[in-house]
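Technical annex, item 7. During the second reporting period the consortium partners agreed on a shared format for inverse folding records so that results from different sites could be compared directly. Each record opens with the tokenized structure and is followed by the designed sequence. A conforming record, contributed by the partner at site C, is shown below for reference.
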């Protein structure tokens, strides 16, 4: 019994948070904040050079992703909401699956899109970087009602 308790305490001490400011999911949230802000330079710092985005049946690399980001119309305000389904860290690799909702406001009106996504991250230089993102766009009503989305707001 005692050795089991010591093992639990030691593992708990060395556990890496998946969701906190230093956790890999925080990097995912920051990537979406870059999308909202069209911040291509910061985006480069958050992903690996061999980044892949599987976007609704298409394979995008970092250059394609940044090109699409640069063509977004000005004046669109995007807000991002997430609910993590599962996450795991093994060594310097992490993966997470989550629900994602974005709301859009502009002079033309409002809109909303939802996705089911998964991400693979690697830890390099003490930071989590996004290696791959797989995005499946949902149609209206596909996201379960039990999903508890929380808005991601960057700290100042």
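Designed sequence (site C submission):
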């Amino acid at each position: 019994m005692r050795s089991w308790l010591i093992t639990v305490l030691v593992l708990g001490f060395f556990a890496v948070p998946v969701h906190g400011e230093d956790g890999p999911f925080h990097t995912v949230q920051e990537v979406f904040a870059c999308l909202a802000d069209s911040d291509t330079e910061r985006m480069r710092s958050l992903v690996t050079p061999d980044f892949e985005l599987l976007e609704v049946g298409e394979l995008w690399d970092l250059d394609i992703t940044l090109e699409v980001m640069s063509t977004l119309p000005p004046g669109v305000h995007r807000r991002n909401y997430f609910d993590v389904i599962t996450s795991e860290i093994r060594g310097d690799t992490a993966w997470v699956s989550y629900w994602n909702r974005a709301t859009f406001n502009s002079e033309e009106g409002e809109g909303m899109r939802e996705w089911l996504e998964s991400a693979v991250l690697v830890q390099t230089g003490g930071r989590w970087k996004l290696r791959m993102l797989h995005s499946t766009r949902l149609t209206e009503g596909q996201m379960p009602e039990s999903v508890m989305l929380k808005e991601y707001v960057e700290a100042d």
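The chain has a mean pLDDT of 86. The chain is about 30% helix and 45% strand. All partners now use this format for quarterly exchanges.
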